[in-house]
Amino acid sequence: MVVKNICCLGAGYVGGPTCSVIALKCPEIKVTVVDKSKERIAQWNSDKLPIYEPGLDEVVKACRGKNLFFSHDCNAAILEADLIFISVNTPTKTFGNGKGRAPDLKFVEGAARMIADVAQSNKIVVEKSTVPVNAAESIMKILKANQRPGVSYQILSNPEFLAEGTAINDLLNADRVLIGGEESPAGEAAIEELCQIYEHWIPRKRILTTNTWSSELSKLAANAMLAQRISSINSLSAVCEATGADIAEVARAVGLDSRIGPKFLQASIGGSCFQKDILNLVYICECLNLPQQAAYWQSVIDMNEHQKHRFTAKVIESLLNTVSGKKICILGFAFKKNTGDTRESAAIYVAKTLLDEGASISIYDPKVENSQIHEDLKYVGITPEHIESHLSIFKDAYSATKDCHAIILCTEWDEFVTLDYEAIYDQMMKPAYIFDGRKILDHNNLLRIGFHVETIGSRLGQPFKNRRYSTSPQAL
Ligand SMILES: NC(=O)c1ccc[n+]([C@@H]2O[C@H](COP(=O)([O-])OP(=O)(O)OC[C@H]3O[C@@H](n4cnc5c(N)ncnc54)[C@H](O)[C@@H]3O)[C@@H](O)[C@H]2O)c1
Ligand SMILES: O=c1ccn([C@@H]2O[C@H](COP(=O)(O)OP(=O)(O)O[C@H]3O[C@H](CO)[C@@H](O)[C@H](O)[C@H]3O)[C@@H](O)[C@H]2O)c(=O)[nH]1
């Protein structure tokens, strides 16, 4: 079989960009991205796409209506496809067995059942969603149990490694493409079909083929290792604050070791897409009766969580331990720059804590929709009335910071670096505080202007004071 027709179930942050790039690079293949959400599909077919990703608009414009289609008709797309990507969401379970840890596979199962119900010809089904090890086997069970006579399936694991904010570049220049499949002639043939799609733009030596389980586990392992680096640097940032070392200097010194490398060593406020995948790994370890391994990866999550709490506690402590009645501006609500995604964003925790403490919050983020901010805060328990009376959302940083007692920078958007902080200082309440949760601002300039400045991983203007060793470090 030569793949001529691709269907993707799930038009989200992964399905949309991934299939747009496939359509761009494989003009002879018809790519149809479907979603059960009519609203999302309507947005994909409009001028304002449902997700913000640098470069995505251009790719969609180049292919949409030619060989790239967004549709709500899942059945029709499944029927005509040779190869089907499952790119549906796999959030952490919020109820029942494995609550708070295991991934909720109901959308993956729903997708598999949909394929089984509709398919009338052979299909290669590709697991693109991030799933636990053995998920391919579960998908196969569903497909086989509902198989029509004469229809056969091959399941491949092809995890996605793109990061939001750089998705198009990551897809075009992937470090590697990973394809796992059944170790049989039919499995190898299916792997080869998918390889040929990626070979339109990815050199063969960067396409890695493995067995299905290795592929599934490699995705969780990659995220776990990345998260572990961030947790490690965040852990060291607390040591820096307590000693007078500067985490930026430490990260640079450590990262110049070629065995360690400089990437993913930026201390920050914490919070990320990683959490659900590491929880997934923890749950797998628990289920496999590997408690030490589960505890190890759990500690990576705990450190990330702790960083958010530590940073927010520092804000409140600096503001004389009370924020009640104060107006505080949060700059940035997305979990990182160049995306409108707020899932697991540290800003949600910061905003909730400050609202619980009685502060009024003003928020500005260049790409996050107002409705998303409302939804996120309601989800963490802030009542609509409280939101109505204590939250304002602005369209620019200058309006958002006016009359505030403090600014908390939660997302590292480039535009925050070049704001006119003199003008901002002039229109703030005094003393004016700024908490740089991303370490992107010019702290010396802010101090010169008159701000009280706090950041992560260094104690500005007070080196080596109040060392907190209970004993000398050598004696520890
Ligand atoms: N967001 C990322 O950066 C990223 C990167 C790599 C991997 N992943 C993984 O990829 C998967 C998808 O993530 P996402 O961020 O794109 O999620 P998302 O929530 O943005 O999109 C998932 C979409 O799937 C749709 N859907 C659910 N069930 C469906 C069905 N049966 N048929 C059709 N559509 C259905 C939903 O309506 C939703 O629009 C997850 O497993 C995630 O962990 C995400
Ligand atoms: O040095 C760093 C790097 C990142 N972060 C933060 O860590 C989080 C995650 O960042 P990043 O990994 O860049 O974005 P994601 O879109 O979450 O991408 C991760 O998660 C995806 C979903 O599984 C994977 O596909 C990607 O490979 C993996 O990088 C964000 O809040 C970043 O601000 C830091 O605090 N310091």
From TrEMBL:
UniProt-recorded Gene Ontology molecular function terms? NAD binding; UDP-glucose 6-dehydrogenase activity
Q: Which cellular component, as a GO term, is one annotated location?
A: nucleus
Q: Name one GO biological process term.
A: UDP-glucuronate biosynthetic process
- Which residue intervals define the domain UDP-glucose/GDP-mannose dehydrogenase C-terminal in the entry? 329-443
Q: Which Pfam families match?
A: UDPG_MGDP_dh (PF00984), UDPG_MGDP_dh_C (PF03720), UDPG_MGDP_dh_N (PF03721)
Give a short account of what the protein does: Involved in the biosynthesis of glycosaminoglycans; hyaluronan, chondroitin sulfate, and heparan sulfate.
- PANTHER family assigned to the protein according to its UniProt record, in alphabetical order: UDP-GLUCOSE 6-DEHYDROGENASE, UDP-GLUCOSE DEHYDROGENASE/UDP-MANNAC DEHYDROGENASE
Please give the name of this protein.
UDP-glucose 6-dehydrogenase
